Amino acid sequence: MAITIQVKDLQQGYGKTIVLKDINLTVHNGEILGLIGPSGAGKTTLVSTIMGMLTPQKGTVTVLGQQMPNRKLLAKIGYMAQTDALYSTLTARENLKFFGAMQGISNDALKKQIPYAAGIVNLNSDLDKYVKDYSGGMKRRLSLAIALVSDPELLILDEPTVGIDPELRQQIWAELRKIAKQGKTILLTTHVMEDAEQSDQLMMIRNGVAIAQGTPDQLIKDFQVDTVEAVFLKAGRQQDENSRND
Ligand SMILES: Nc1ncnc2c1ncn2[C@@H]1O[C@H](COP(=O)(O)OP(=O)(O)OP(=O)(O)O)[C@@H](O)[C@H]1O
């Protein structure tokens, strides 16, 4: 299986502050990687580095065979940020057209891609409403549609299920699976254990360090617990014990 994301010995931070240490990660084509960890652990910092928005302090990040940062690759990456960056005085369709055009998608392609992307998040019947009249969950769904509109090779979703009800969450997961089956790679950050459980691979980050990595089933087995949440709690306790013994 080809590799989409390769992170080697990454150290990352802001100025003199180190946020991430010794991060190693390989994500293959068609895989869904869930990045979980408490607030401030460094998830967004890692995602920003993978996208090439930040240059590594140490180590390397390669995406689709190219070392990051690399502006040319941005067209192949669909990104949904943690906070919705939408134009509220435009309709959802106009937002999709605008962001699609920004990614270099032709008008003809957009005619096909907009209904496809809006269909995944159940927004086709609300496309001509103004975004200022959207609920928080609808805005989140529109942001996800914008990330999907270019049919990207790599989809990066920062907390995609915040404000989304359980039924739609299941629906979105079914679509993410379909997208992954087509050979697209998905990286998502989450605080939601149901999302973590559904990921193919997990990386748990705490205090800037990867404290557990593997498939949900393998982690549950290795940590001798019953749930992904319990893996996370146990790995966190082990990290605290190790730092006390240092
Ligand atoms: N632009 C920045 N300049 C300086 N420090 C930053 C910057 N962005 C993030 N940080 C710091 O880096 C650390 C990791 O932040 P990051 O946003 O990566 O965490 P996170 O795991 O994504 O958290 P959350 O789940 O709350 O989004 C935090 O201590 C944060 O204060």
UniProtKB/TrEMBL annotation:
Pfam families: ABC_tran. Residues 5-232 form the ABC transporter domain. Transmembrane segments: none annotated. One of its GO terms (molecular function) is ATP binding. Keywords: ATP-binding, Nucleotide-binding. It comes from the Bacteria. The keyword Oxidoreductase does not apply. Gene3D superfamilies: P-loop containing nucleotide triphosphate hydrolases (3.40.50.300). InterPro entries: AAA+_ATPase (IPR003593), ABC_transporter-like_ATP-bd (IPR003439), ABC_transporter-like_CS (IPR017871), P-loop_NTPase (IPR027417). This is ABC transporter ATP-binding protein.
